């Protein structure tokens, strides 16, 4: 999978507020699907579908322990997303700086 494909999958997964909240909850450590489901007004299969999207995007890992499925954040899962956002942030700041310089030069003396 190319970097662009991974970014597209990650941003698609992050577009949903429930999935973002799941990632937030997993910051504290691994949780089972049942533990996650208690926080949402939806069925366990619906939570599993959200987890499948996060897993496909490489943001979450699921490990089977006996009959339980434990979910955790994938190591460095958001590093690529954060790097892309930082690149965009830097580029936009540079553009705004150039615009400010131009406007300062073009501004009539008051």
Automatic annotation (TrEMBL):
<protein>
    <submittedName>
        <fullName>Metalloregulator ArsR/SmtB family transcription factor</fullName>
    </submittedName>
</protein>
<dbReference type="Pfam" id="PF01022">
    <property type="entry name" value="HTH_5"/>
</dbReference>
<dbReference type="InterPro" id="IPR001845">
    <property type="entry name" value="HTH_ArsR_DNA-bd_dom"/>
</dbReference>
<dbReference type="InterPro" id="IPR011991">
    <property type="entry name" value="ArsR-like_HTH"/>
</dbReference>
<dbReference type="InterPro" id="IPR036388">
    <property type="entry name" value="WH-like_DNA-bd_sf"/>
</dbReference>
<feature type="domain" description="HTH arsR-type">
    <location>
        <begin position="1"/>
        <end position="93"/>
    </location>
</feature>
<dbReference type="InterPro" id="IPR036390">
    <property type="entry name" value="WH_DNA-bd_sf"/>
</dbReference>
